[in-house]
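Ticket reopened. Same input as before:
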Amino acid sequence: MDISEFLQQELNNRKSKGLLRRLYPAIANKKGKIFTGKKWLYDFASNDYLGLAEQGLHINPTASGAKASRLLSGNRSSFQNAEKALAQRKKKQACLFFSSGYSANVSIIPAMLKEKDAAFLDKACHASIIDGVRLSNAKMLRFRHNDAGHLESIIRKNRHKFKNAMIITESLFSMDGDFAPLSKIKKIAREKDCWLYVDDAHSTGIWEINTKGIDILVGTFGKAFGLWGAYVCGSKKLIDYLTNFARGFVFSTALPPFFYDEIKYRIEYIKDHPQLITKLKENIDCFTKQLGGKHSSQIIPIILGETEQAVKLSRFLNRKGFFVPAIRPPTVPQKTARLRISITTHHNRIELEKLARLIRDKANG
Ligand SMILES: Cc1ncc(COP(=O)(O)O)c(C=O)c1O
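Engineering reply: fixed in the latest deploy. New output:
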């Protein structure tokens, strides 16, 4: 088939299902608002939970690029200082940075699992985790979202068929906004001879989880840290191993040197400004109370089912001044199209209450 014909066919196919993704203009972002070319909207789509993305860099860049992978261009003390600071914060022996969370997951999982191994992963795990397992050639066995009982029964039936096995979950789920039952999962991992891999992307910097019993802890700096890049924390031996075998580390240019200083600065900044988390929690409470319920994280899904319903509500809110894009399959499972409300410290009571009221009124007909 001609390449152009192939591309058009695939795009048309997506479009016919109402699932075509398009880049929309974001001409400016400012303090929780986004300008899309027509008007300023309150931004409820951003993962800048603590409002740090607009802070600007605090460290004067002395070099613009890392020049090569760290294995080639050398390991500066600033790299090691930042990784050490994060390892300490996460109560792990060591840490290694990657250029993105996606790259971390698709590099670390295949470094850990091989053909004769198994990955037991939560059904709601992020695409980068799924891609990592696919790349590893290990058997992928998925358990019902946050259902430790189901995980245990799948492991009981299958663990003996594989050499090594790893349970993979997120700590705070990106599209559902709920926390994994980590203590139960840790117990299963311990008892059933499985390694435990936790992606802490949406929790990092806000909800500090108990990292004891987690063998591989991954997270990103693109959410609450307001930057980009990612990390893995674990034992010293794990980091030595990944320095050798994680292809996204070995074969990719390192993050720019100034980035490491900036990360170290932000680790301290978040630690020294607990009021940011207090404010975020107040905003979550304010929004969820108005919506008539309770929710324990900054990610609040409004599940509508069909794609058209989610798109319709998103457009309605847009007309009312709120930016809340619809999240559609394949990002979420079929028939669970939703609005994903992302609360940040930038929001204020008036806009939170107004958004909640608009959603509640629509839900009530
Ligand atoms: C759970 C999870 N892991 C990894 C990623 C990818 O991180 P990054 O945006 O740094 O590539 C995301 C992105 O949203 C995520 O939600």
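Residues 148 and 184 are 7 Å apart (CA to CA). The pocket of pyridoxal-5'-phosphate is lined by residues 100-102, 105, 126, 128, 170, 174, 199, 201, 220, 222, 230 (CB under 6 Å). Please confirm and we'll close it.
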